[in-house]
Amino acid sequence: MDVIEKARELGKALQQDERYLRLVKANQANDADETLQDLIGKFNLKRMEINQEVTKEQKDSDKLSKLDAEFKELYKTIMSRPTMVEYNAAKQDMESLVTFINQIVVDSANGEDPDTIEQATGCSGSCSSCSGCH
Fold first, then answer.
1. Residue 103's CB: how many other CB atoms inside 10 A?
2. Do 100 and 114 meet the contact criterion of CB atoms below 8 Å apart?
3. Which tens digit of pLDDT belongs to each residue from 14-27?
4. 45-87 pLDDT, tens digit each
5. Could you report how far apart the first and last alpha carbons of the chain are, in Å?
6. What domains lie within the chain, and their CATH numbers?
7. Which residues are within 8 A (CB) of 23 and not within 5 positions of it... i.e. 6 or more apart?
8. Which spans in the chain are helix H?
9. What is the pTM of this model?
C-alpha cells in the first residue's frame, strides 16, 4: 500500500471520528437555526451598509458610528447563540485534531518517530521545533 492510499484511509478514518461528526452535526444545527440565519442575513446587510457609507465622498461619521455599533451588536448576538457556541467549540476540537495529524506527518517527514510525537500544547516561542501555527 502506498502513502497516498494511507492518506485516503486516514481521511476516511477522520470522517468517522467523533470530533468530525460533532462538527457536521453542529453545522447542520446552525443551518437549521432560523433565528441564527436571520441574524446572519442582518449582519451581512449591515456590513453592506457600512461599506456603502465608507465609500461615500461625504462620510457621515455619526451614521458610521451607529452602523458600527449595530454591526458589533449583531456579531455579539450571533456568536452567543447556543448553536454557534457549539459550532465554534466543535470546530476548535476538529482544528486541534487536524493540527496534531499535520504535526505527526511533518515531524515524521523530518525524521521523527511517529509513535513518539506528542501533541503540542501551545506556542513555546521557538519556531525551530514547530510544525506550524494554526
1. 19
2. no
3. 999 999 999 999 99
4. 999 999 999 999 998 899 999 999 999 999 999 999 999 999 9
5. 30
6. 3-100 (1.20.1500.10)
7. 87, 90, 91, 93, 94
8. 3-14, 18-32, 34-55, 61-80, 82-109
9. 0.80
